[in-house]
Specification:
Blueprint lengths: L1 E3 L17 E6 L2 E10 L4 E9 L8 H7 L4 E8 L3 H9 L3 E10 L4 E10 L1
Parallel strand pairs: 4-5
Antiparallel strand pairs: 1-2, 2-3, 3-4, 5-7, 6-7
């Protein structure tokens, strides 16, 4: 089941920004994944963070969480070398729309900008 995250879920969510909305994927009372996003402006969102418990990966949880995001334009940045995440996002309907030179530090690396139009 996917539901909005609440105060009681914050301990299970690996994200330091307490004011950002998030969704959790819960099965049998256990949170197996979550997605944190930022409401940018008027049906535009930025996907900030998505995580699935290691033992629950490759079961469609991440794609289900992406599908549950609000309708609109959803943007994200991902490390160029993170091919697994880039493939996940492509399978979920995201397309590459740009590149941010040296967006990431430690190690320095370009960020790939991706967008999903969900109407």
């Amino acid at each position: 089941m996917i539901r909005p995250g609440g105060e009681a879920d914050r301990g299970a969510v690996n994200w330091p920004l307490a004011n950002e909305p998030f969704l959790v994927y819960e099965r049998e009372g256990r949170i197996l994944g979550h997605v944190v996003f930022h409401d940018v402006f008027d049906n535009e969102y930025e996907l900030l963070y998505i995580e699935v418990d290691a033992a629950a990966r490759r079961q469609g949880i991440a794609r289900a969480l992406i599908s549950a995001l609000p309708a609109g334009r959803i943007f994200l940045e991902v490390r160029e070398s993170n091919t697994a995440a880039r493939e996940l996002y492509k399978r979920a309907g995201f397309v590459e729309t740009g590149r941010r030179k040296l967006y990431y530090r430690d190690p320095p690396e370009d960020g790939i900008v991706m967008e999903l139009k969900k109407w």
